[in-house]
Specification:
This protein has about 120 residues and is mainly alpha-helical. About 75% of the residues lie in helices and about 0% in strands. The protein has helices at about 5-35, 40-80, 95-100, 105-120.
Length: about 120
C-alpha cells in the first residue's frame, strides 16, 4: 500500500470516528434530557424506555466500533495496516474500502467463520 492510499484510509477512518462521536454526543444529550420518562401514560413510558434501551445498545456498538477504528489508525501509524493478521498477506483494497477496520483477508475471514460455524454446531 502506498502512502497516498494509507492517507486515504486514515482520513476515511478519522471521518467515520468523528461521525460516531457526534452521534454519541447527540445521544448523550437526548438521554440527559430524559424525554419520555415523564409520560403520564404507562404505554408511552414503556415505549420510551424501550427506545432508550435500544439507543443504549446502539451506542455500545458504536463504542466498540470506535475502539476498532482506533486500532486501525494505530496499524496505519506502525505500518501494519492492510495486512492480514493471520497470513501477513495484503488485504485487498476493495475489502478495505468496504470494511476499513478489517484485520483479516477475505480468505482468512472465511476460514474463521467456517471454524465458528463448526464449533457452534457441536
Amino acid at each position: 500500500m502506498n502512502p497516498r492510499q494509507r492517507e486515504y484510509f486514515r482520513q476515511k477512518l478519522l471521518a467515520w470516528r468523528a461521525e460516531l462521536l457526534q452521534e454519541s454526543s447527540e445521544t448523550l444529550a437526548s438521554l440527559q434530557d430524559g424525554g419520555g420518562l415523564q409520560e403520564p401514560d404507562l404505554t408511552d413510558r414503556a415505549s420510551a424506555e424501550t427506545d432508550r434501551a435500544l439507543e443504549l445498545r446502539t451506542r455500545d456498538r458504536a463504542r466498540k466500533l470506535i475502539s476498532k477504528i482506533d486500532a486501525a489508525l494505530r496499524r496505519i501509524e506502525d505500518g501494519s495496516y492492510g495486512y492480514c493478521e493471520e497470513t501477513d498477506e495484503p488485504i485487498s483494497l476493495k475489502r478495505l474500502e468496504a470494511r476499513p477496520i478489517a484485520t483479516l483477508s477475505i480468505e482468512a475471514q472465511e476460514r474463521h467463520e467456517r471454524m465458528e460455524r463448526t464449533r457452534r454446531d457441536d
